[in-house]
Amino acid sequence: VRLAFFTSFRPQTFLLIMKRQFFSLFRTWHSRLIPTALLSGGLIGTSAYGMSGTNENSGPAEKERLRSRWRKMKVFSGTANEPLAKEIAARLNTSLSKISIKSFADGEIGIQIDENVRGKDVFLVQPTCPPGVNDNLMELILLISTLRRASARSITAVMPYYGYARQDRKMQSRVPISAADVAKLLEAMGVDRVVAVDLHCGQIQGFFGPRTPCDNLDGSVVALPYFKEMDLLEDRTVIVSPDAGGVYRAKRFRDGLKAMGFDAGLAMFVKQRQRAGEIAEMDLVGDVKGCDVIIVDDMIDTAGTLCKAGAELKKRGARRIFAFATHGLFSGPAIQRIADSEFEKVVVCNTIPVPQNKKIDKIETLSIADLLAKAIYSIHFKTSISELFEIHNGSIKPH
User: Fold this and answer.
1) Checking CA distances to 52, which of 170, 223, 340, 359 falls within 20 to 30 Å?
2) Pairing mode of beta strands 121-125, 154-159
3) How far is C-alpha 158 from the chain's CA centre?
4) H or E segment at 331?
5) Can you tell me the distance from the alpha carbon of 256 to that of 249, in angstroms, rounded to the nearest whole number?
6) How many CB atoms lie within 10 A of CB 275?
7) Which helix (H) or strand (E) holds 238?
8) What is the pLDDT of residues 174-230, one digit of tens each?
9) Which of 81, 204, 191 lies closest to 133 in space, CA to CA?
10) What is the pLDDT of residues 291-345, one digit of tens each?
11) What sign has the CA pseudo-torsion 273, 307, 223, 89?
């Protein structure tokens, strides 16, 4: 009544105020229609991932705060690995946001964001992996630029595989440091954060400036429960690094098994390369006679080093030979080499999609979607991601 009195001589002002009140009430009512799955069995509430959220004892204000925060998250996918992106979205109890990506007749990439992203926190899943490494990298750059121009509040590039990572230093004159140049390109486009998995060299995180954090997740946490169920010899299992640079990775894998109650030894190869992708000589440091052996590396490309290491281990008397690498590129003759090798199983993660014609019985693929979904959740809700580097005893089934 007071409102009508004060605005009786200004009917337009009265109608405008009433319109604002109506939309305010509508937004309050609509916010309560958020699916209850987010507060019960999803990531908010009694989280399936065991991370901090709300529970049944949380007050209405806290639940409303998390609902509001949840609505600000958008998950987009490029074309490099859409199946993995869909898995991640499913783990987050959401769906991929709408985007149109097409190639023009001349090979250029066309991008259209089909949803409003103004003020949203965007997570963009796009590994720069083969096939089409350069196309995937260019697509990622244009996606970041498009989202920045569309006024996204923050942009996190989720890169399960970081292309050009092996060119991380100058080994000879007049060559680029491509891993650093890719980081500069992403920063120049306006990315706020990068999430990667098992970078070829951990120091690549330093190629990004302090205003662009780079999280390097450990893919081995997915594989450890798998190998624990492989009936390995308790006192005669050895983790092998294929080169001196991977000793830290192999040691970390061994420590992960130990944290799960399974002790193992450590060995390494010292290799001399004749040229890129070709090994002249390999010497083993350690004893593997009568042991179950797991070769641990970050990626499998042409599988030349891997299969030569497997043959050498068999000569040294290894009982069973396995291999684990986070990224399975399987370039050139890799599949045929693995099929003809001494390995019982070669285990990789689905950071890179494996074409149907490259799937053989010896290759096992594990899903890394849970790990990446946990990382996205933790970043969005501003909780610690340190637990993602710890070992859990949950079972991981082949993807």
Assistant:
1) 223
2) parallel
3) 6
4) none
5) 11
6) 7
7) strand 237-241
8) 999 999 999 999 999 999 999 999 999 999 999 999 999 999 999 999 999 999 899
9) 81
10) 999 999 999 999 998 999 999 999 999 999 999 999 999 999 999 999 999 999 9
11) positive
Q: At what angle do helices 178-189 and 133-149 cross, to 10 degrees?
A: 20
Q: Where are the alpha helices (DSSP H) in the chain?
A: 2-6, 11-31, 60-71, 82-91, 133-149, 178-189, 220-228, 247-259, 304-315, 334-339, 369-380
Q: Is the four-CA dihedral 280, 286, 291, 297 of positive or negative sign?
A: negative
Whether 75 shows a pLDDT value over 70: the answer reads: yes
Q: What is the pLDDT of residues 369-384, one digit of tens each?
A: 999 999 999 999 999 8
| The two three-digit tokens of residue 113, written as one number | 């964001």
pTM of the full structure:
0.83
Nearest to 273 by CA among 115, 166, 122: 166
Residue 2: CA atoms inside 13 Å, Cβ hemisphere, count?
0
Instruction: Say whether pLDDT at 395 is over 50.
Output: no
Just list the catalytic residues. 271
Whether omega for the bond prior to residue 213 falls within 30 degrees of 0, making it cis, is: no
Rounded distance, CA 167 to CA 382, Å?
A: 33
What is the H or E stretch that residue 206 is in?
A: none
